[in-house]
Amino acid sequence: MSKRIYNFNPGPAALPLSVLEEIQATFLDFAGTGMSITEVSHRSKPFDAIINDAVTRVKRLLGIGDDFKVLFVQGGASMQFAMVPMNLLPDGKSADYVNTGTWSTKAIKETKILGKTVNVAASSEDRNFAYIPKELSLDPNAAYVHITSNNTIKGTQWADFPDTKGVPIVSDMSSDILSRPLDMSKFGLIYAGAQKNIGPAGVCMVIVKNDLLEKANTGLPSMLAYKTYADSNSLYNTPPCFTIYAIDLVLKWLEETIGGLEKMDAVNREKAALLYDLFDASSFYNGTADADSRSLMNVTFRLPSEDLEKRFVEEATKNDLGGLKGHRSVGGCRASIYNAMSMEGIQALVDFMKEFERTNG
Amino acid sequence: MSKRIYNFNPGPAALPLSVLEEIQATFLDFAGTGMSITEVSHRSKPFDAIINDAVTRVKRLLGIGDDFKVLFVQGGASMQFAMVPMNLLPDGKSADYVNTGTWSTKAIKETKILGKTVNVAASSEDRNFAYIPKELSLDPNAAYVHITSNNTIKGTQWADFPDTKGVPIVSDMSSDILSRPLDMSKFGLIYAGAQKNIGPAGVCMVIVKNDLLEKANTGLPSMLAYKTYADSNSLYNTPPCFTIYAIDLVLKWLEETIGGLEKMDAVNREKAALLYDLFDASSFYNGTADADSRSLMNVTFRLPSEDLEKRFVEEATKNDLGGLKGHRSVGGCRASIYNAMSMEGIQALVDFMKEFERTNG
Ligand SMILES: Cc1ncc(COP(=O)(O)O)c(C=O)c1O
Ligand SMILES: Cc1ncc(COP(=O)(O)O)c(C=O)c1O
Ligand SMILES: [Mg+2]
Ligand SMILES: [Mg+2]
Ligand SMILES: [Mg+2]
Ligand SMILES: [Mg+2]
Question: From atom 16 of ligand 2, which residue's Cα is the shortest distance away?
Fold first, then answer.
């Protein structure tokens, strides 16, 4: 038997055990090919079946049709900070960015490096990004409105998306992709590094509306143009086959074991509530995000002192509860509870937290 | 028992069985962490140990010191076609490119997309790239000389590298990286998509000399600047952890099981000779590359008719010899025999080829 911990890492993060077991079982001989999935050609029928299945599952989960393309792009979400404006922000136009934390700040920085014009439509920097801004000063002529739907480090999440009066929303959903249903009619493009909710690190999923693709900027290097990926089903060059295979298995788990995004959302709400209720009932644990901006994915909290926080993380680790340290830029504690974190994991954490408060409070 | 075939795919390609077995055995619990390697944080001690080990092994294998950086970059070799000139070709300078096939042609195309100046120093296009050019018209002021060391599709390889009078060579070594010793003093940068000689698809290894890094172009998006990777040990953002782990195991195999690049080279020469000797002794099988330009990695050949080639590939497949079809752009047959292809695999192929000639010749 392998030892398994409850893994609260922010990403790379826990994956469903059944997915890991299937990868392991088939690792030397994938689908009767006599090859590992790491050895199969990306120009083969077995791999075509995988990538097509993944695309179909994403579309079905999100309820989108042929007006969107689902792309697999390397370079992580960080590469998208540059690719989004390269492709979607034409010269002479500007884009609105809402600054809700570290990742939004980086998205803005990369856009400016390209010499493009950014309008910061709102920011919550005044209170260390502890909330999602309510008032946005949007430019009706903006090429797009960029939003970080879930702020992994600050522990905040957009509960609803704003009405942008027809300007397409571009959203970094790295830390909450496929964790809840979405009204996709509001979005022009969403992107997400795989390594939190949908698979191992090594690919970024980009879902883009055809009309944006059609008017995208031209003259880009092939690997930096969305069109290259859209025209080739992400097979212009060798894709990260193993990672896409693992993602396909996670998507299958999401559809067939969980039962889709409504069900996933309900479970995620229940999981997060167990922790937030504990904070609200205790003076020992305190959440860092405003109540109306709390993330269902990254639950950030503080203990009465940094010493206690250090001991908390250490003792949790000894109890096989891993990854609870807050991001180095903010300190404190953080429990990342993405789709694959089970209710049992949350329950184990809650039990540990109560015991730790009893003995240290 | 898993079924295993002899896999002659051009990439993704065969990996050493012992590497696959180790990944499989540790897949649910990596190094006692209680997590899969796909779930381990890239900011953790266990992952640091992996990436540092990989870098150290590459340097030891190639006999290079701290004057080079070993980087892991996403996007495959195709992304390097653009990143090389973005970083290393300053405005007002030009670069020399030797055109030896499909991949060189693409490298040239991407450089031109960027509006940069290319001098084609030589080309073997006149005879469908069946040879490596001997005469190069090099520009002493070029920023670099770009060479595709092994032409995966055309089956040709540079046996030696030219004297470029101090101008650094930049080489796409996707299909022969770490297959033989190199005199690294000639090179400013080498790059290789992992999926042929060193691991699964999903990362490109870039080995670059510090002096080129120091004078590299600035003002690039973070993910497109080599400096970003060099300054962060390839951990600026989330790297493809699983792929880097697999590469580290392949490097360990290369050092500890094979015994380094001299040994690997000797084995590779022996393997290729078995096939080329067969061609030379037979009028049924004929190599497509000039004798002095033959690749030790991708052995391209023709049979007397396309019908026979089709039957050859089909019957080979039935005999568990996979991936022998030539690239769709050239036809014919191709046996890709990278580092991980065993002598037993070559012997099985040679036996099959003799039998096929006997019954169809
Ligand atoms: C919201 C968000 N955006 C972007 C990133 C950067 O992702 P990557 O490491 O894939 O570039 C992260 C990583 O944690 C994130 O949480
Ligand atoms: C020599 C060479 N260069 C570049 C490439 C493209 O590599 P990638 O698919 O990693 O972009 C290949 C792929 O076969 C290749 O053989
Ligand atoms: Mg954040
Ligand atoms: Mg409280
Ligand atoms: Mg070629
Ligand atoms: Mg012959």
Answer: B152
